[in-house]
Design goal:
By secondary structure, the chain is of the alpha/beta class. The chain contains seven helices and ten strands. Helix 1 (about 15-35) crosses helix 2. The chain is globular and about 50 Å long.
Length: about 260
């Protein structure tokens, strides 16, 4: 697992979304050129969905071989398929409905319309992840090439909230989350071991209300207190921020990407 994250600061949330989209295109194209396919983990949230919309809006997205891309989610609200509050729904509307993905390689987390309980849905997603893992991945999930994460003002990532049972899970790659402090109360989430299986973890955050959590995630805070502090990739970790989210971190820590 990498040590100190790289921090890159963009002028505002709109430019941040565009920059993350451009970075994604480059990263996925390079990965597919090297290995033939890639695994991408999506996130929800305002900036996460804005990034996907920016990706759909640029002609450069045609450089990605969408048929050779496996798409996963870091977490999901346990709501029926097509529900407007599902991360999957937002991702399909912003991007996936506009590109030539292979439906068999898009892996949404099940909702209650599957007939499963949240616990059964978490177990089913773990099985799907395990089927996609290769021997060289050395674990129960694929080595995701890029794993996108938003971050809440409380420092949560995916649906790993401070002090909740899910942040202490070290065995299972996917868990059901009950009593989420942010509605809806029932969710599914990858756990820290699954997040840390990613080659690259990108934490994307915008807004003044995230600034204190960003500062703590990049300092000595523990992951149980500030889950974003535990979001680290095996090869690289990026904190991609707008100025408002970055303004409480030491100037020496961040690289200004846009004047």
């Amino acid at each position: 697992m990498t040590g100190v994250p790289t921090v890159i600061v963009h002028r505002d949330a709109e430019l941040l979304a565009q920059a993350v989209a451009a970075r994604l295109i480059t990263g996925l194209v390079d990965t597919q050129a090297a290995r033939g396919s890639a695994h991408l983990v999506l996130t929800g949230g305002t900036v996460g969905i804005a990034t996907l919309a920016a990706l759909a809006g640029t002609a450069a997205h045609d450089a990605i071989d969408w048929r050779a891309l496996d798409i996963w989610w870091g977490d999901e609200r346990f709501l029926p398929t097509g529900h407007p509050e599902r991360n999957e729904t937002g991702a399909r509307q912003a991007l996936l409905d506009h590109v030539d993905v292979d439906p068999a390689r898009v892996h949404p987390m099940p909702g209650p319309d599957s007939g499963m309980t949240a616990e059964e849905a978490a177990d089913a997603y773990a099985v799907e992840l395990a089927k996609a893992a290769r021997p060289e991945d050395h674990g129960p999930v694929p080595s995701f090439d890029v794993l996108l994460l938003g971050m809440g003002p409380d420092g949560h990532v995916a649906s790993l909230f401070p002090g909740q049972p899910a942040v202490y899970e070290e065995e299972r790659p996917v868990v059901a989350v009950h009593g989420s402090p942010k509605p809806p109360p029932t969710r599914l989430s990858l756990t820290f071991p699954a997040l840390r299986a990613a080659r690259e973890v990108w934490v994307v955050a915008a807004g003044e209300e995230k600034a204190q959590a960003v500062r703590m995630a990049l300092s000595d805070a523990g992951p149980f207190q500030i889950p974003a502090a535990g979001a680290r990739g095996r090869q690289r970790t990026l904190f991609l921020l707008d100025r408002a989210a970055a303004h409480k971190i030491p100037p020496s820590l961040g690289r200004i990407a846009s004047p």
